[in-house]
Amino acid sequence: MILILDLGSKFSRFLGRRIRESKVYCEIVPYNYPMEKIKGKNPEGIIISGEMPIDIGAINGSIFELGVPVLSIGYGADLLVQTFRGSSIKPNTFNYKFETINADKESLLFNGLYESLSLWLDKEYVFDNIPEGFETIGYIDGKTVAIENRDKKIYAVMFHPEIETSNEGKYIIDNFLFKVCNAAPNWNMEEFIENTIEEIRKEIGDRKALCALSGGVDSSVAAVLVHNAIGDNLICVFVDHGLLRKNEKEQVEKVFRDQFHMNLITVDAKDRFLKKLKGVTDPEKKRKIIGEEFIRVFEEEQKKLDDIGYLVQGTIYPDVIESGLSGDVAVKSHHNVGGLPDDYDFELVEPLRQLFKDEVRKVGRLLGISEEIVERQPFPGPGLGVRVLGEVTEEKLNIVREADYIFRDEIKKAKWDKKIWQYFAVLPDIKTVGIKDGERTYTYTIALRAINSVDGMTAQWVRLPLELLEKISNRITEEIPQVNRVVYDITNKPPATIEWE
Ligand code: XMP
């Protein structure tokens, strides 16, 4: 396994995904992870990666005494040379782009690659004083951007091989994995499934497990995986809080009850959610109420069952990294349907804890889950409750649900569905003046949002064809009498978030 010591930001996650794509198992831990634990993991290689705006000082020098190959990237490379009493030059403002680098093919890192490589870096961010024992293996305009200590197998590079668009970066990472570390490419989802089912069987035995199924990718894959291990001893609860998209409940029933023959309890809790949300307009309060009410409903169902020892959750690796690594301020209180309070007397089963999203999808496909579920776009736990701005009422939910359905239908027909990360309709709490059949109308506005993103942390609005937008707008205003205006959201994240509330 490869251990990534993370200095912050999302670079380490890109790197982790790239390494896993090469079928090598890796884990991301904070840069100050205790030395004893590092040793305990017995890594085949260590990568120091990430970018942090504050200076954390030099890294723990004993990492370099473990006899394990080390690759340091970007800011990690900067810290590495400091540790070895070298230095680098940091520009005042950064300007990262693809530049042509001269690479030394004698180095294992560049073995088999061209002599000039296109790599992503700031060409002003370079090594200045090269520490003793190290030599230059990559340069640009005569300045050093990559160094190695051949004996100790320590590398420091100023370019970012992990970014998705860097093809040559991928080969450099593979060289580090296979030529420098001799890592074994034995990480694959078929084996993961086999081993995980075996482990779950051993762990749970004859006891019963409960799963809050939301119909999202993660909880669906987790449920099917556990079902494969313990069959009918897994009981799934699907709470219909009335904040779901059109046909969602039917789809979940079709897949889990009809296809997989799972023990599924669907709870119709629409009225109690609406009652709780009556008169509430504050977005955070709404989220809280929905989250708490979900737990109440789930608890009541759980009390009707006996002998439940385990709770299955669809936690995935980015959730683990996010809660364990960054001290990021929560912009919104995200409550996952399926997220439950701490005071439960259950053991947790989180079979997807080690997997990135694309790996979860792969596992889902291998388990025979349909594309409809496996490729499902993200949907917030509080559902349409945060897409009806202001007070949530049944009428407003019906409007946004129908608009969302039309939007999704047209996007699919136009074959844009695979090109967009997330798209949905929002009902802002405003009415405007319009005209229909020669009569004045005063009805609601629908906002459409379509964004592309890698992980939801940042997002770009999608340039949908104007003709398609017009078609969608026409359908919404024709088919939903309470809507006379449609607007398209052209804001990136940041400054906006993806959801409006
Ligand atoms: P924001 O609006 O924060 O959303 O830019 C980022 C991503 O997270 C989804 N989202 C949620 N997911 N529970 C969830 O499971 C939530 O409460 C929640 N709120 C937002 C959002 O749809 C987007 O994909």
Automatic annotation (TrEMBL):
EC number, as in UniProt: 6.3.5.2
Active site, UniProt feature: 160, 162
Binding-site residues, ATP: 214-220
Keywords: ATP-binding, Glutamine amidotransferase, GMP biosynthesis, Ligase, Nucleotide-binding, Purine biosynthesis
Pathway field: Purine metabolism; GMP biosynthesis; GMP from XMP (L-Gln route): step 1/1
UniProt superkingdom: Bacteria
One Pfam family of this chain: GMP_synt_C
Molecular function terms, GO-annotated: ATP binding; GMP synthase activity
Record bears the keyword Ligase: yes
GMPS ATP-PPase domain segment(s): 187-376
Catalytic activity: XMP + L-glutamine + ATP + H2O = GMP + L-glutamate + AMP + diphosphate + 2 H(+)
Keyword Ligase appears in the UniProt entry: yes
Any one GO cellular component localisation term in the record: cytosol
InterPro entries: Class_I_gatase-like, GATASE, GMP_synth_C, GMP_synthase, GMPS_ATP_PPase_dom, NAD/GMP_synthase, Rossmann-like_a/b/a_fold
Major enzyme class: ligase
Function as written in the Swiss-Prot or TrEMBL entry: Catalyzes the synthesis of GMP from XMP.
NCBIfam families: guaA_Cterm, PRK00074.1
HAMAP family assigned to the protein according to its UniProt record, in alphabetical order: GMP_synthase (MF_00344)
Subunit structure: Homodimer.
UniProt protein name: GMP synthase [glutamine-hydrolyzing]
